[in-house]
Every structure is written in C-alpha cells, then in structure tokens.
Amino acid sequence: MATVSPDDAASAHPRVEVLGNIGPNWFASVMGTGIVAIAGATLPVHVPGLRGFTHGVWVFAAILLVALIVLVGGHWLRNPRVARTHARNPQMAHYYGAAPMALMTVGAGAVLVSGDLIGERIAVDLDWVLWTAGTLGGLFTAVSIPFLMFTQLHVEPDAAFGGWLMPVVPPMVSAATGALLLPHMPPGTGRETMLYGCYAMFGLSLLASANIITMIWSRLVLFGTSGSTRVPTLWIVLGPLGQSVTAAGLLAAAASTGAVDRRVSEAMNAFAIIFGVPVWGFAVLWIALATALTVRTLRRGMPFALTWWSLTFPVGTFVTGTSQLAVHTHLPAFRVAAVIAYLGLLLTWILVTVRTARGSVGGTLLKLPPSSDPVRASKDAAADAN
Questions:
Q1: Which end of the chain has fewer CB atoms at under 10 Å, N or C?
Q2: Which CATH number is associated with domain 18-361?
Q3: pLDDT computed for residue 114 by the predictor
Q4: 286-296: per-residue pLDDT in tens?
C-alpha cells in the first residue's frame, strides 16, 4: 500500500494549508467589526435606522468570531507547532491578546445591541460566558507575553510598536465590558467585589499601557517610523486611551446603581470626568499625529495588510469614550465629537472590510510573510526609502 508524504498531503490540500496561516491577528477583524455595533448603540444622539444597522453588524461580528474560533482553534489542535511558532515571533506573539478582546466585544454587543433580537436573558448569559473567557484569556496574555519579552524574545532597540499593547489592553476591555454586567448582579458583596475588580483591571492595563506608549513615543523620536504596514499599528495607542475613558464612565454609572455607598459613587462619577477629559485630550493629539504619519506612509506606498484593522477598534473606543464624556458632562461638544468620530469609524471599517474580503478571496492575506526579519525604523535623513 502506497504511503503519502507530508509534502504530498500538503499539495493535495493546498487550501487547508493556506487556512493554517490564519493567526491570532485575524481576531482583530472581530474587534473592529463588533466595536462598530457597540459605538453605534451608545452614541448620545438618535439616528434613524442606526439600531437596525448595529443589529446586522453585531450578527456579522458574532458569525466571524465563530468562524475564526473553528479555523484557528481547529488548526492549532491539529498542529500545535503553529501556535508555538506564533508565540516565538516577536511581532505575532502580541496578537494573542486579540482573541480575548474579540470575545468580550461580541459579548458586550449582545447586551447593548442584540437584547431585542435574542432576548435579554440569553444576551446577558452569553455576555457572562464570553466576558469570563475573555477576562481569563486577557489576564493570561497580560502576564505571559510580557514574560516572554522579558526572558526569551529577542527585541531590537527600535522594535516598539503599537502591537505591544495588544496583550495588556484586554483587562481594560474587561473593566469596561464588566461594568455592563454589574446592573444584572444582585446587590451585595458580589456586585461590590466585581466593581472593584474591574477598577483593579483598569489600573493594571492603564499603567502597563502607559509604559508601552512611552516606549513607542521614544522609538518614534529616536528612530522614526518603519515606513511599512506596521505604521497603522500606531492607532492601537488609541485603544487603551479610549477604552480607559469608556471604562471610567461606565464604572461610574454602574456605581450609581447601588454597588457602593453614595460618597464613593460620587467620587467615581467625578473621576470619570477628571480622568476622562485630560486623557481624551491626549487621544485627540495622538489622532492628529497618527493621521499625519499614516498619510505620509500611504503617499510613499503602503500595501494593504491586516494591520489596517488597527484603524477600527481603537477609533471605536475613542467614540465610546467620547460618548461617555457626553453623558457625564452633558456638553453638546462631546456629542458632536462622538458623531464625527463615528462617521470616520464607519468609513474606515467599510474600507478595511472590503479590502480584507478581497485579499482573502485572492489569497494574498492567507500567505506567510515573505520574511521574518525584524522591521527596521528610520527617519528621512537616515534612509528616505524606508
């Protein structure tokens, strides 16, 4: 009886092998799609037809999540070597944080968007399952990936990029989405513990992100940008900024429902504004800088890659954070800013979704990168072509 070599098997099923190249970074598409639904559902203004639109987007995100879990999870079960290869890659390893955030994004959307589609009880139960799985996974990546960086991964002096934030941002997403579950908990110690646990994850992610953002700023000053498809990851900096403003606002609102005594609740509401407005200001500055650097790179020729999804979820968190400031300050300026930012999010999401679909059908996004060499950063004076 003839035997079939692994090479022959691979050539016999090329599509299966190509799908095996789908890594954890693909979960960013679920994040970017789900946040469109969440941001639309939480806008501080009423727009006719927006509710139905967010329903459709959430369903799309949920289907996409299931498909990626089957594809990525199934391939990793059959070939664990792939997962180990990703974990040892100094650039890909950070994107293991995308899967937990994708879970929590779809879970939050279930409560905010799909309650009237699948029923409030089912929506809340689904959110609990996805939030729990995402929180555990996010806490794991927040510890394990930095540990790998500290002990095993070889990191160049100019290596800091937005992707470094991916493993440490999930606890901030847990804090923001966990606030949505607090009103569904019975009053008492459990609800209060959940509230303070969310604040603890808020601090964990905020301080870790602040360190990384400082390193990204330092790399830009000392070395410049890579001038490559890594440039869009600069937008990931908006993620912890916008999500922290969102979390502060949502946790303050949840505290007002009786989770803590009145004096603590009032302090948390004050913190949502005192913390939120300055961070929002820095986020606006970063949007200006990231826009300028992205346009500069596009003019020099930047091909499409999955890193373009960095233009969606982080911007979506800026929208939700702005909406929270509109709720807490009652200022029309924040309502206007939220609507403008949401329009920008919609346009970007449509563009990236279409380009991703086209690249997936054509197979260009399913191929392994041509080189695993480190991405080099440079300034115009050093190497204008890079």
A1: N
A2: 1.50.10.150
A3: 84
A4: 999 999 999 99
